[in-house]
Amino acid sequence: MNKNIELPASIVIRDLAQKVEKSPIEIIKKLMSNGVMASINQSVDFDTAAIVVAEYGFDAVPEAMEEVKKEEVGEVPLWRRLIADEDASKLVVRPPVVTILGHVDHGKTSLLDAIRQTDVAAGEAGGITQHIGAYQVEKKGRTITFLDTPGHAAFTAMRARGAQGADIVILVVAADDGVMPQTKEAIAHAKAARVPIIVALNKIDKPNSNPERVKQQLAELELVPDDWGGSTMVVPVSAKQKQGIDDLLEGILLVADNMDIRANPSGKVMGTVIEAEVDKSKGTIATLLVQNGTLEAGDIVVAGKSYGRMKAITDYKGKPVKKAAPSTPVSVMGLNDVPAAGDVFQVVASERDARTIVAERVNTEKSQVQARKKVSLEDLFASVQSGETRELQLIVKADVQGSLEPLLLELKKLGKGEIGVNILYAETGNIGENDVMLASASKAIVIGFNVQADVSARRLAESEGVSIRLYDIIYRMAEDIEKALKGMLEPEVVEKVIGRATVLAVFSASKLGRVAGCRVTEGELRRNAKVRLFRGTDLVYEGEMASLRHEKEDVREIRTGFECGVGFKNFNDIQTGDLLICYVLEKNG
Ligand code: GDP
Question: Average pLDDT of the chain?
């Protein structure tokens, strides 16, 4: 009887060879004899691998546990969250919303134009005269919505705000140029957002196009083309010569059919702001993508910190409409301010409700900015335990390919424990802004090995709350991550001085012992912060305050210019002229 062997949905030849304890060369030969050409770093899908392992007396079974784990990982698409409370019996299929990503110059804009021109209806109306950031086309009597803002900057910005307009990503790869850095970034984004990818293999009209090479590159990135037995649809197109566009649209419908994309047209009206601007004569014009419910003229909408009654709704062709059902992009007027792309919008019952919501948002914004949670190695364990995180998301940058490989191997080993490690993106080169944006949108940590972080990347990391960790020795990195996964990593603590004061007089208060009468000269003193007392350059006390008073009142803090009384825990030897420094300890993850 054959032995069972667990195999994932796709497996790299090298790993497959290890599983059956044969040399990779032997496996490659076996594949060749079955008509499959693959190199050691390429992946084959489950069925192909099953044929190979059968030759060695194994029965392949799907790696069930792995599948379930993968399902849990990543974000839940916004639209699924939006319809979570809807009555399931009222949900109907809505058009898929598609966005186009890919490396610069691979033909995103050209493809969007070519697709737009296939739309007969738009052609009859004399073409689309205005660009609202989205448009729709008909195919086989069904509608597909395209977000017309190519480039993953828009996609990332939206994701970073928790929004997600697209159901499907079209990844444009030029057949003459192949997979490039931004192609890999786009794949990382789509995977992190759990949005399925269809590859548009563009520029096939070019004499130097090499589709097979691109397919091989894609397979190496775990996007195994369907004609290689994988599950990624790869559609050859030429945006320039308008070839393959119909196939691409049909492909989108096929993928959409497998996704069960639904909404409740009579449910709560919500969606995402695609773009917005101020027009001198018309006021704020915003493009909204309705994701649930039906938006109607006259509705009162709150979008981010703006609100207003929808005065005029027009479709992507500029035609006035009264209603917009799920997946419909519309241009609206009537908001009192400009919302940001990626803001979620909703319809409310009255302007008063709208004002209340906006006021609350404005009020909580400041505290949110401060409380913005930095994803760090130090608090990984805690956030896993509280259910916020399921695994450690990493972006790995290294100086050379030669150091990237052992690094990834080490990280994969570490991720076999209770808390998994998911590598979103691994590449050579310094840490740049794109890496930080990807990290921010995916709540990931950036690991740099023998590389630097660009100044702009550091700044962005600071404002986005992204943690960057630099290493030059693999075992140090491994040690840190291992400790983090076990919840044993001590936070890196830094001191931050928050205030200074001089002692002007010393009092004796019967209950409190001796008290320093101080004036705050800089920053503030906080009751629960730590203090040091200096006499000249000598440190005479280090510890905590026993009391902080302003005019006999106990206070929690006191600012520059004010006078106060400070008592110290277990310390009475205070003298006039002493210098008080107040500091807090901050985690620096
Ligand atoms: P984007 O930067 O990804 O938006 O790329 P563009 O759509 O601006 O295209 C970049 C260049 O590639 C332009 O010069 C296009 O004319 C050209 N291009 C786009 N698609 C094709 C194609 O299918 N075939 C050929 N030969 N050129 C194309």
Answer: 84
